[in-house]
């Protein structure tokens, strides 16, 4: 009851697990440390949200008022073949009237001070204008991606030909050069396609906000904010990260992985996971299994049912019961041969607890930004195996610029052979290169903890923003 009159922030998160997790952490900090109340609206793309989604939502701290928005009405629903970004955007757009209603009700009880949206949610910007509050974007990918988005409208106007055919890399101030093959998936699409048009429109929207919070920190990306003058943008960009959950998201801590990890030697276990949505083909899944075997390292592998035509085959989650499907896609005899050496789990894993365990030696990751941040916060070197969205850029940044990852070598056919899986793991686990990675990772772990400490830069920035919001609402 004592928080009833606290100024309130309204946060709007599109149906992406990788956004919900950092949004909940941002909201938690605003409430716990900065004297605000927070309502977190989270959209749903399907009428039956996945089990993981519900579990993560249920684990959002009580101090945050979480409101689940309904899925788009059946008449509006896009076919499953529609691009993921379109389906995600529709889930937000179809809810704008409801968001308006909720905002009015909340505003009657306590002053609303800001609307915070993700990169998809900027389409709801009229709501902020009607309420007379500032619109902030919480960008849940790195600054490098944001910089690319902010530069895209200009590049689109001045470059000829398809972005994927460019022979010169894109050079953004302070960032590793971006080679054509590392561009975000939507930029590789034909420039005449809807996919590209949607991405470009999102890029233009990114500059139409009052401020941007980026889930990164200064030592990880020292160039944050550089190059905006050249674009004639007066856009305040603040680093508030790394904001991810330190306790596992929506899963029991007594997961069998944890007791098994307790029995393994320090730094000996490879953790393999491709995030909430990433999937491999049948052939690639089997090859990864053989690669793990070949590496002779202990492992925990969060395996997903293979998908032949999509690298985000599980983006909208798996339904209850999916974790009991047979593991018949693994090579014959794999489970027997690796018994005692590794754990294969199909359920949602307690990732942050696993990464924080001293037995973990490296993380084979798709480089989703939350996974990267969680690895960095725990000082765990990475073997980068990017799949979609901006993950190739994240991998390049972590390998070349930050120096905490090796990249699994991809063949001309986009296939990663078992020898290369094993080679990537060995490079990250043993020898001089591994030693260098560990040293740099541990340095970065200290810096990330400091950014979030009581007088760390991310905490101070968030305090300033919260103050600006509170003061503006009192006028
Ligand atoms: N995650 C988890 N258990 C799993 C898989 C994923 O807790 O079995 C969490 C992970 O810790 C991270 C998020 O889900 O916080 C995935 O976000 P990321 O940006 O890495 O990838 P995305 O799922 O968005 O591709």
Automatic annotation (TrEMBL):
Protein EC: 2.4.1.-
Q: Which PROSITE patterns match?
A: UDPGT
From which domain of life does this come?
Eukaryota
Name the chain's protein: Glycosyltransferase
* Protein family according to the UniProt entry: Belongs to the UDP-glycosyltransferase family.
Q: Name one Pfam family in it.
A: UDPGT
Q: Which UniProt keywords apply?
A: Glycosyltransferase, Transferase
CDD domains from the xrefs? GT1_Gtf-like (cd03784)
